[in-house]
Every structure is written in structure tokens, then in C-alpha cells.
Design goal:
- This protein is α+β, with helices and mostly antiparallel strands and 156 residues long.
- The chain has a single domain (3-155), classed as Aminopeptidase (3-Layer(aba) Sandwich), CATH 3.40.630.
- It has 5 helices and 7 strands, in the order H-E-H-H-E-E-E-H-E-H-E-E.
- It has helices at residues 3-6, 18-33, 45-48, 93-104, 118-126; strands at residues 9-12, 58-64, 67-74, 79-84, 108-114, 130-139, 142-155.
- The longest helix has 16 residues, at 18-33.
- The radius of gyration is 15 Å and the shape is globular.
Length: 156
């Protein structure tokens, strides 16, 4: 546990967090796409949040030193969004957000991860997720692009 992750506060999303969520997503999304999909597939959070259901389920933010540094959105059985500010990678924030969500989920949880997103795959494997299916098809949110990914599953 790093100093930053030990001082981390996780709280429910508030409307005032929107600008930071956009900044975090838009910076980290490029890292997520890199190695998996043409970077031309990038769409901003503002363009995708509504269609991809960001606000449909539980949405929490991680705060360090009064600044939002990451966020997670999840339902009872699926992690739908998990992003950390690239300036705060490797500080335990993604792990803290994931564990926070898993504590509030049911006994079986799924997540979809692009196959080239090695840091995310490692995060989920470390938390006990297993790859249960490899999928190819259109990129969710920008169907003009082909993508390959994994469905991963965690059980309590």
C-alpha cells in the first residue's frame, strides 16, 4: 500500500465531479485502447457516458488530497467502468476502487477487458478474476472498430 492509497477516500459520485471524470477517462482511455484497437476509435466520456450507461448503476470516486483521482461504476454483478488518472498509476488506486466495488457486489462478478490492456488484466487477475471467455467483435461504444477482449469472472 502506497502513501497515496492509504490516504484515499472513496465516496459516491457528485455532479461537481463530472469535469474530473472526463479528464481521467479521456487520458486513461488512450492507454486502454493502445495495443488493442486503433487509437482513432477514441471517444470522450462526454460522447459515451450516456449511451454506455455510466450513470445506470453505482458510481463512486476516489479522492486523494481533495482531488478526484479515479472512479468505478458497477452493478451487483458487473464492473462496468474503472479508470485511474494516469498521473496516479501504480499507487494502489485501481486496486482500492476494485476492492471497494467487490465488497458491494454479489458472489459472482464479471468484467470485460480489451485484450491489449495488460495493466487492467493484471489488476483483475491479482484480485482473483479468471478469464472465462475470449470475444471478438465490434468495440462497445464505437462499433466502427473491431476489438478483441476477455470476459473475466470473480467469485467470492
Amino acid at each position: 500500500m502506497t502513501k497515496e492509497s492509504s490516504m484515499l477516500k472513496i465516496r459516491i459520485y457528485e455532479d461537481r465531479d463530472w469535469k474530473r471524470l472526463c479528464e481521467i477517462h479521456d487520458a486513461a482511455r488512450m492507454d486502454e485502447l493502445r495495443g488493442s484497437v486503433d487509437l482513432a476509435a477514441f471517444l470522450t466520456l462526454e460522447e459515451t457516458a450516456e449511451n454506455e450507461g455510466l450513470f445506470d448503476d453505482e458510481l463512486y470516486v476516489a479522492v486523494s488530497e481533495k482531488q478526484v483521482v479515479g472512479f468505478v461504476a458497477f452493478s451487483s454483478d458487473e464492473i462496468n467502468w474503472l479508470y485511474t488518472d494516469p498521473n496516479h498509476y501504480k499507487k494502489g488506486i485501481g486496486n482500492a476502487l476494485l476492492n471497494f466495488a467487490l465488497e458491494r457486489c454479489e458472489d459472482k462478478v464479471e468484467v470485460s477487458v480489451l485484450s491489449g490492456n495488460k495493466p487492467a488484466i493484471q489488476l483483475y487477475l491479482k484480485a482473483g478474476f479468471k478469464i472465462i471467455e475470449k470475444k471478438t467483435g465490434k468495440l462497445v461504444g464505437n462499433e466502427a472498430f473491431d476489438a478483441e477482449g476477455f470476459i473475466m469472472e470473480w467469485r467470492r
